[in-house]
Model the fold of this input.
Amino acid sequence: MSNMQIIPMTGKAFGATVNDVDLKDLSDNDFAILHDAFLNHGFLLFPEQHFAEVESVAFGERFGELEFGGLPMANQQKHRDGTFGEIYDLQSQMMRTNVGNETWHTDSTYKPISSKVAMLSAVVIPDEGGQTELADLRAGYDALDQQTKELISGLSAFHSTNYSQANDIGDFPDTNGEGAYGTVYHGEAYLRPLVKIHPETGRPNLFVGRHAFGIPGLSRAESRALIRSLLEHVVGDDSRVYTNNWAVGDTLLWDNRRILHRARPYDYEKPRYLIGTRVAGDPASELAYYPEDPEAEAGRKALTEELEHLRSETTDRRYGATTATF
Done:
């Protein structure tokens, strides 16, 4: 019989720590228990797992088809022999992307099919900083007043990383869909509702983050103000925000359909290596549309117009409305 313990986070509306379990040797029955806990709590923290990349892939695949698996989330390039090279320059697109991820978001809403599950496992961590924070979009929705719920019930927003990088840090990646970042900075924008009905629990939650912009039917000023207010509402209550202070061996698993997350700053000259695995969403619930579909043109138009505004508005942000050259 399993000795697994699932302990809700103290003082939080979401999340749990799971002790006395080995994710590398997990029975189908115990996985079913964990899956129910995952849906109930929104995220699970597993101490002392010490995953390798192949083990991250194997556990991720139990949730469904992977978007990617066992990917080094590091500020250094990993070589084939397992060693790491020099620390990436902060002006590189790799580090610009990492810095951008220090703003609240959900994964892959900027792709045709947004992500279902994300997982990080700590291998090398800095002495200070570098935490991962999570916020509960479901508890945030529940705490809205009825007037706001009615206001947003039929509204949607476009999602794009070209937008979020420009808006948050003044980084303007190429939008030609080529190179290592072509699947991220592709010049498309995907329309998603502000209120998402979770496909497995049936519960509503907010579905906003740094990638969201341009609510059809609202002016640019109204759209920006509404998205900002909803985000600030979600993270404005301590019970809806959890900070994971990484310990080597930790694995953190969260539901991208319900949970916001962000990285926290650290000394970028110090190594940081997490293993990332992301489970693709189910097309029945997570598909917006494909670039070749007729409705995609509205997203491209909205993004082009928004980036024109941001070119002049973000010269004072970290990267000064520039494009990385490497």
About this structure: The first helix runs from residue 28 to 41. The CA atoms of residues 290 and 296 lie 7 Å apart. The chain has one domain: 13-313.
